[in-house]
Amino acid sequence: MKHIILDVDTGHDDAVAIALAAGLSDKITIDGLIATAGNQIREYTLENTLNLSEALEIEAPVFAGSTGPLLRDRVIAGNIHGKNGFEGPVFEKRKKKECMGNGIRWAVDHVISHPGEVTFVSVGPWTDLAVCLKSDERFASSLKEIVLMGGAVDHPGNVTLSAEFNVFADPEAAEIVLKSGVPITLFSLDVTLKLLLTEEILERVKSLPDTRYKRIFLDSMGYYIPSIMRSNGEMPAMHDPCTIAYLYDPSIFTYSYRPISVETKGDKTYGKTVGGKEDKNSNIKMGVNVDNDKFWALFFKAINNLV
Ligand code: RIB
Ligand code: CA
């Protein structure tokens, strides 16, 4: 069983990652969710995470994470994910409440009390993870693995030509994470942009028996597809879900071991993830290729387990 802390900025693709983790509970347990600022302000990403967790009957606690980056001015992606960060689905009045207390303190205590057992998955800006790493020196050595969505190594960025959103939103945090020495598996744009939703997949979802998640997925994609089409001219990439698919079946991807660091000084290249040459001794492996058929087979396996 893989125990994960899932740090999100729910958002449309974060929501697919959360659903994937919830539907793959034969191998993955969500120990806790932390909502951070990113796609939208934390108030909205927390609301979205709580709404989705309740709709999917996820029992894991949901904590509030960081309200913004360590150093730079806060950037959000309302232009892509909409005013509330997860435009499309409409949720009933919710009973689930955020778990009181600081999500970062909880994460540090949880990881330290379960040495070698917990994987930290970050699919928004990596601010919360960086603060955990800086809060207690035992955190890094107690972690089993770090799995990240973010960066663009040999591929142009999606915010600037240099930088991808999650890293651009907090480059200083990203540098702290990549320098932590913890085993890291990174899903950057280099591989996530090879995994696009297709009309055929959408039609297959529409043909499924009616469930809460089917409605949430279709309502969310009803907003997200035209939004991404306007922005990039293509169907949405399954950025964040790559992290969960990897944890369930690493064979879905191929990898390259690379030293990777973040440009935090350049004004034109601020937030660029800079990759060195292939190095088997690097503690960072990045996804390179993805087997789309295997991913989507896993996606349908997961959502068939959801309410
Ligand atoms: O660049 C893609 C990343 O930015 C994804 O995590 C998406 O949710 C947004 O946060
Ligand atoms: Ca995200």
Outline the fold blueprint.
Elements: E1 2-8, H1 12-23, E2 28-35, H2 42-55, E3 62-64, H3 78-81, H4 103-112, E4 118-122, H5 127-135, H6 137-142, E5 145-149, H7 165-168, H8 171-178, E6 184-187, H9 189-192, H10 199-206, H11 212-232, H12 241-248, E7 253-257, E8 260-262, E9 273-275, E10 284-290, H13 292-303
Parallel strand pairs: 1-2, 1-4, 2-3, 4-5, 5-6, 6-10
Antiparallel strand pairs: 7-10, 8-9
This protein binds alpha-D-ribofuranose (RIB) and calcium ion (CA).
Residues 9, 11, 13-14, 38-39, 123-124, 240 line the site of calcium ion (CA).
Query: What's the number of helices?
Result: 13
Bound molecules: alpha-D-ribofuranose, calcium ion
The general outline is globular
* Unreliable parts: none
For the secondary structure, the number of strands is 10
Mean pLDDT: 97
- Rg (C-alpha, Å): 18 Å
N-to-C series of helices and strands:
EHEHEHHEHHEHHEHHHHEEEEH
Give the neighbour order of strands across the main sheet: 3-2-1-4-5-6-10-7
**What's the assembly state of these chains?**
single chain
Largest sheet: 8 strands, mixed
Strand content: 15-25%
Structural class: alpha/beta
Helix content: 25-40%
